[in-house]
């Protein structure tokens, strides 16, 4: 099989974003005629998938690549999934659940409320999550495969300098304003009314289970952990330390088939049944009920806590970094002293442009470098209500790229190029391990050097 790699880097970047929420939303428009246009082993690509991907660009006001290029990106995606299946690469269901919660939270913010989202699609939140779950899982597998292929790639400072010196001076990129921003996050607390309501519901479920009703059936009906609910709440075997402490402590205190009291964790309220233990592993199932984070939480304590921290920081009793490490409930940023990083690069310098989270952009618009904001509303990636204070640490002026100011950014480019090279090599080798075919409809496109019927 001869592979045309001229567009490979574009294809790779497209593959990362294929399973997007824009594409998810386009399904509402409907495709009148559908057929299989490509196959990668047991994975099929439908015309509707290609059209949805194309429409996702136009919906965002972007110029879409040619359909042949988009089909290549879909083939890369399916190929990573096919090879993951061959190599037995899997992802944890709880990680899929967390990513799914984050995606749904984004959708809810985008539409303004759960009610607006439900009305727009004509489906319940649970139904939408069920539809989106496999897409999220596939994307997680694709990302795991990419990490497996290129995760060990490293670069040296000399490689960065060599790359920078290879760029013609009149072609050096122009870097927009960048900012460093820190935040300290405190979660809203569940109201007494909401807590009592969920506890009463779970106590009723426990009473029914102990009265002879099937726990698995009750989990299927009532649990809001969609990943395990369809399996009767079954979480499979978990190693010690894999679950949050509250859950694990309660589960390991049970005897086989015993049902716990109500357990509260960061995910909600659990009713747990231990099935068996095996060495350092245990097998449990649960019913999970989540608070209504729009109406069932109270931010009073979060505001009070953040106000107190803000005063201590402003009078120099405490540095922002120290306060974040000790008090922030955003574990992704607390260890870094609260600094917010670009999720794609891991760099704490954020471009001050349309790519920034709108809520953060508009908050910074009314602040000066060095300011610490009053407590402001915040929604976590998994949809929980919270409050946060922001620290506007620094801002750079727009400038032509240079080694001193932009070393981290240049390093990311060099690392990305090196990882792409590793992925290109993998693709050339892996292409012979899977069957790939493309429909005659695309015979005029260069699809990795494929004939319409299959691998060359």
Automatic annotation (TrEMBL):
PROSITE patterns: PPIC_PPIASE_1 (PS01096), PPIC_PPIASE_2 (PS50198). It holds the Pfam family Rotamase. InterPro entries: OMP_Chaperone_SurA, PPIase_dom_sf, PPIase_PpiC, PPIase_PpiC_CS, Trigger_fact/SurA_dom_sf. It comes from the Bacteria. Residues 176-276, 279-376 form the PpiC domain. GO terms for molecular function: peptidyl-prolyl cis-trans isomerase activity. Keywords: Isomerase, Rotamase, Signal. The keyword Signal applies. Residues 1-25 form the signal peptide. This is Peptidylprolyl isomerase. It comes from Arundinibacter roseus.
């Amino acid at each position: 099989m001869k592979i045309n790699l001229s567009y490979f880097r574009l294809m790779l970047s497209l593959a990362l974003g294929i399973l997007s929420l824009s594409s998810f939303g386009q399904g509402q428009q409907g495709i009148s005629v559908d057929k299989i246009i490509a196959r990668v082993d047991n994975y099929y690509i439908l015309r509707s998938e290609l059209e949805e991907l194309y429409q996702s660009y136009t919906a965002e006001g972007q110029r879409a690549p040619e359909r042949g290029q988009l089909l290549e990106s879909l083939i890369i995606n399916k190929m990573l999934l096919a090879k993951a299946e061959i190599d037995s690469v899997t992802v944890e269901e709880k990680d899929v659940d967390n990513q799914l919660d984050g995606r749904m939270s984004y959708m809810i913010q985008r539409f303004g409320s759960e009610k607006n989202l439900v009305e727009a699609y004509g489906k319940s939140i649970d139904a939408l999550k069920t539809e989106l779950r496999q897409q999220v899982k596939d994307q997680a597998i694709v990302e795991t495969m990419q990490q497996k292929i290129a995760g060990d790639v490293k670069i040296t400072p000399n490689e960065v300098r060599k790359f920078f010196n290879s760029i013609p001076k009149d072609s050096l990129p122009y870097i927009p304003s960048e900012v460093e921003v820190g935040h300290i996050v405190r979660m809203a607390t569940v109201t007494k009314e909401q807590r009592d309501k969920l506890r009463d519901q779970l106590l009723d479920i426990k009473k029914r289970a102990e009265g002879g009703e099937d726990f698995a059936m009750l989990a299927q009906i009532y649990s809001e952990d969609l990943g395990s609910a369809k399996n009767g709440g079954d979480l499979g075997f978990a190693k010690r330390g894999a679950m949050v402490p509250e859950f694990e402590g309660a589960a390991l205190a049970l005897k086989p088939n015993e049902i716990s009291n109500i357990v509260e964790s960061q995910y909600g309220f659990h009713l747990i049944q231990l099935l068996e233990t095996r060495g350092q592993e245990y097998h449990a199932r649960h019913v999970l009920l989540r608070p209504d984070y729009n109406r069932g939480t109270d931010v009073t304590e979060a505001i009070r806590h953040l106000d107190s921290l803000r005063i201590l920081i402003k009078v120099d009793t405490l540095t922002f970094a120290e306060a974040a490490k000790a008090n922030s409930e955003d574990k992704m940023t607390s260890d870094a002293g609260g600094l917010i990083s670009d999720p794609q690069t891991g760099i704490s310098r954020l471009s001050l442009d349309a790519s920034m989270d709108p809520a953060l952009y508009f908050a910074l618009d009314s602040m000066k470098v060095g300011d610490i904001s009053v407590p402001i509303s915040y929604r976590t990636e998994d949809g929980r209500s919270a409050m946060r204070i922001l620290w506007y640490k620094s801002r750079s002026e727009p400038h032509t790229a240079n080694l001193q100011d932009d070393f981290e950014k240049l390093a990311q480019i060099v690392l990305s190029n090196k990882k792409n090279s590793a992925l290109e090599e993998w693709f050339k080798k892996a292409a012979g391990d899977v069957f790939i075919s493309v429909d005659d409809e695309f015979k005029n496109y260069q699809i990795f050097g494929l004939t319409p019927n299959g691998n060359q």
